[in-house]
Amino acid sequence: MKKKYIAAIDQGTTGTRCIIFDKDGRVASSAYEEHRQFYPQPGGVEHNPLEIWEKTKRVIKSALSLKRIDPDEIAGIGVTNQRETTIVWDPHTGKPFYNALVWQDTKTRDICCEMSESGLEGLVKDRTGLVINTYFSAPKIRWILENIAGVKEKAGRGDAVFGNIDAWIIWNLTGGADGGAHITDYTNASRTMLMNLKTLDWDDELLNAVNIPREMLPDIRPSSDRSIYGYTRKDGPFGAVIPVCGDIGDQQGALFGQTCFEVGEVKNTYGTGCFLLQNTGATPVKSKKGLLTTVAYGLEKGRATYALEGSIAVTGAAIQWLRDNLGLIKSASETEEIARSVKDAGGIYFVPAFSGLFAPYWDMYARGVIVGLTRFITKEHIVRATLESICYQTKDVVNAMYEDSGIKLTVLKVDGGASKNNFLMQLQSDILGVTCVRPLVEETSALGSAYCAGLAVGLWDDLDELRKNWSMDRKFEPEWDEQKREKGYEGWRKAVERSRNWLGR
Q1: pLDDT tens, 345-379?
Q2: Which pTM was predicted?
Q3: Which residues pair with 31 in a beta bridge?
């Protein structure tokens, strides 16, 4: 049977999607399910790995059945995922030793402080391009090793293994306890705080410094691997033997799906958080302005393309907070109309530092604030201020990126769920003073992983062929004058200072 599709599994912070793409990069079928969020204490965010795997199986079956796609028509499978989220499990049984510690989880703050006080900051930044922060996987692994009985001893014997979500999904897809492939790719490994950016391998000095045994870590492979990570089983959710050969972290996947293959090209993904990446080419660029140096993608063993990244912890999650915690809205889609109903935010600013502040501040002690409140303020102003916070946090990152790279942003490619909000995208263009371009296919992370898998099995020949698939949905041009832009940003910076170091030490 002719191979004409690629399946992508997009395992995100709030849910899992299976999208089946055709050769033109268009969606042939899609299915999605949310999973539960657990908040065991202030700052704690966890997921159930077994629930995630169950939802993954369900969306695969739903996507196939919805459009009656024969799995034998699928040439390969790509995986993209919420990065940094950490699972440690028993490779003999497939049972996790603890919930997945989500990238937003801050319970590792004390471990991070200990690492900083031990003088590891310079080593971490030099080797990994990252900063010591609760965001990354290494402190989360160590927390599990130190707090869950018996895991530390088992890890040293290889009887407890670690993976970010990509490794967990691929291991289960390819057989699980019955011979599943324990692998990750360059992009996901670069988010652990344990991979050396130059060697593209685990760094033994760092492993020793944070006391994490190498035996528990997955093999690191390219994002697109012609040698294949492994194959699905006939009795698995696809019901056929299909190569699993693409793996890329969700934000790098969006960069790849947006075909940002040239040095200087930038995309911003509007999801639970916001993640702005700039392609910096074959050499890692060290940031001096609070950005991260990361792997953008790797298409062959031992070589990678790098990126500068500005990671923002809470953007879409702030809209969820308005809905779930405050009951100010019934759905995220309402925010566009509500925000339009007022001419501005009434003088308030909302800094949603629920998990501290990420780039470019890296303040684990910051917490969320709403400043400038008067009796005039209504829920409409709060909703608008929430949308403005997304755009202002992005401007913080854009400014830092320009100072690091020297490349002035003129066009920002946008994607992710919140990019469907036309008011938000126009506001982003106004606050940045640059053109924002939204692609026709919004699920760019999944598309990026599909491209990785398709390149590995020859469904697409090269990057030029992928570029031809990209097409624009809508362009947003700035309408504010410079005075209004500067005044708004000045107020934002004052609000950020009010949120910083709130917990103190």
Answers
A1: 999 999 999 989 998 998 988 999 999 999 999 99
A2: 0.89
A3: 18
